[in-house]
Design the sequence.
């Protein structure tokens, strides 16, 4: 009995020195049993070892149109075209053209117009939405905003009445001054009207 016990102890010591495991093998894995794998993909994009999703690319924004500014002093040139006469009424078209063809601006409202007689009297044109010769439509008194750019001027009609039909004197006009709407940039034009019932209408297309 003592020899047998010693042999058993010796066998165990040799087995332990050889790295044997005292646990009992359970045999091959049974079909359907779950298996554990290492190095599994934990999320994120392929090639991204951080595991965090990539931020979406910024979307392009659509630029908004910038409103055009009102025409500043010196931005427009002023010329005049006679419209002739009709039943003792005389008409004049004032033309406001862009001074710099590469720029654009807006005009809204009434120009100023003064006729200066040879005696120095200043006759101011009355601002009215319409008259016998032209102006705004009869159902609209609101002046439009006109974009002034190359090839696209704004226009305003001035008109007057023959002084003789009103039994009034017809003074000689020495100079005509025109100022674009909302401006102090007064220009002199070389065309005049009779001085009676002088009116000016808003700028239009």
Sequence:
């Amino acid at each position: 009995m003592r020899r047998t016990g010693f042999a058993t102890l010796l066998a165990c010591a040799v087995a332990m020195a050889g790295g044997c495991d005292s646990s009992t093998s359970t045999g091959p894995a049974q079909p359907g049993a779950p298996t554990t794998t290492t190095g599994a993909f934990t999320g994120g994009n392929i090639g991204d070892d951080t595991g965090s999703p990539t931020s979406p690319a910024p979307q392009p924004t659509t630029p908004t149109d910038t409103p055009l500014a009102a025409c500043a002093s010196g931005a427009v040139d002023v010329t005049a075209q006679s419209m002739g006469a009709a039943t003792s009424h005389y008409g004049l078209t004032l033309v406001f053209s862009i001074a710099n063809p590469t720029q654009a601006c807006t005009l809204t409202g009434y120009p100023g117009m003064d006729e200066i007689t040879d005696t120095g009297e200043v006759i101011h044109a009355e601002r009215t939405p319409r008259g016998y010769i032209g102006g705004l439509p009869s159902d609209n008194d609101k002046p439009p905003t006109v974009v002034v750019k190359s090839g696209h001027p704004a226009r305003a009609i001035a008109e007057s009445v023959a002084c003789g039909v009103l039994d009034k004197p017809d003074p000689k006009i020495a100079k005509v001054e025109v100022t674009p709407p909302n401006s102090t940039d007064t220009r002199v034009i070389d065309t005049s009207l009779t001085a009676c019932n002088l009116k000016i209408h808003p700028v239009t297309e």
Residues 19-29, 31-48 have pLDDT under 50 and may be disordered. Residues 76-200 form a domain with the Immunoglobulin-like fold (CATH 2.60.40). The first helix runs from residue 2 to 17. The helical segments are 2-17.
